[in-house]
Amino acid sequence: PPVAPARAPMAPARDRPAARALAAVLFSLALAGGSPIDGAPVAPVHAASGPAVKSSDSGIGLYVNKDGNSILRLTLPRITELPGLYSAQELAETIKLRFDQVGYKRDPVWTAAAGDAGMLERALQELEPELLAKAPQSLQARALAPFREAQANVRPLLAALREQDISATLRLQGSIARGLAAVQAELFPAQTLPYELPLEYAGLPQLRGRAEVEMKLVKGKGNAKRFCAATSSMYTGRFGLSYSEVKESQEDMKGGECAVENTASEATIRLTLDGYHAPITAGNFAALVQGGFYDSMPVQQITDLSIQTGNAKKAGKPPPARTVPLEIFYKRDAKPTYSFTSDEDRRGAETMALPFQSYGALGMARQSADLGGEIDNDSATSEFFFVKYDQALIPPGRNTLDGAYSCFGYTSEGAAFLRNVEVGDVIASAKIVSGLENLKMPDK
To answer: Region 175-182: what's the mean pLDDT?
Structure first.
C-alpha cells in the first residue's frame, strides 16, 4: 500500500473542513479500491503516518508490546502507595516480550530473561512487607492470595529458564503476570474511575472498570473458509500463538492452511473491554451487548487490516438512539480526551494508552462524511472493527488509527480465529460474562 505522508500537528478540522473531507475520501478509496462505505474508518490503517516513537512509548524498554492482554495488565490503575508493584509487573511482562521480539533459539535471550526473573524475585521479596503494611486490612487477604501464588512461581520460572524450556517458561511467566495484575485489581476500588468524567456525558452508559464479552462466531452460508481450531490461542506475534504453540500449529497446518480435521464452522472469542481508558465507548458497547444488539449480526466489511460490523441499517435492525464521542487516552495523561483527534489537538506525535498494535484490537467506527461534508468525530453509534495487526504494515505508534479512533479493548482469547472471518459470517451471540457490575446505565 502507498505510504501516507508523515503525520504532523495540523490546524483544527473546523479550519480546514474541505481538505479534511477530501483526505478522508482519498484514504477510504485507497483502502477499499472504490467508494467509501458508510461507517468505514475514514483513516484506515494502511501505512505509517507519523514520526518515529521511542520503543518505550509502545512497549517496555527496547521491546514493542503487541500483546493485548499484556497491555491491559500494564495499564491497570496504579496503586500509588505501592510503586514496586508496577515495577514487578513490568519485569514479568519483559520476560515474554524478549522472546516475542527476538525468538528463543539463542543463548543471550535466555540469559537476559533469567536476569529479569532474578530481579523479579528480589522485587517481590521487597514488596511483600510493603503490601502487608500499606494495603487496606479489608483487602489484604484477597490481594495476598494472587501475590503469593505469583511469588511461588518465580523459582520454577528460574529453573525453566536455566533449562531453556520455552513451554514451561511462558506458562509460568503468564501465571506470574496475571497474578500481579490480580493484586492491582483487588487493591483498586471497584466500580471506580481514577478521574471524573465530564458532566455532559452523564446521560451515556459508562463502564467503570473492565468487562469481558464472549462472542460466538458462525460461518455464513456458502463461505468456504473454516475456523482453524489449531490456532485459537492469543499471543503477541502474528496471529496469537505462544512459541510453544507455534510448532504444534505448524504440525496441524498443511501448506499454510489448517488441516481439515482441525477446522470448525463455529468459534468463540473473548473481548476485554477497558472502561478505565475508554469508559464511554466501552460502556456504550457493553450496553449494546447486554441489550442483544450484536446477536445475529453479520460481518459487513473486511480489508487486509480490519474486520468491521455493527451497522444497524445493513443488518436490518433499528439504529441505536445514542451517539458517543471520540474518546482517546494519551499514554501520559491522567484522563481521556474527547471530540478531537490527536492531529486536531496538535498531539499527533504522542502515543496512546490503548494503541491499535495488537491483533484483535477493538475500535469504534464513525459515520462517514459525504463529499464536501465535514467528518463528525462524535458520530459513533454501534459499528466497530477488529484490527488485524501486522507490524510489517502498521509500525507501532505510527498507524493512522491511533489518535483518530477510540480503542476500547482487545480480543483477549481466540484472536487467531479472526484471520478466517469472511463477509457474511455471523456473530451468533455476544454476552457479558464478567464485569457486568461495572456497567453504569444512565438514570431514566
So the answer is: 98
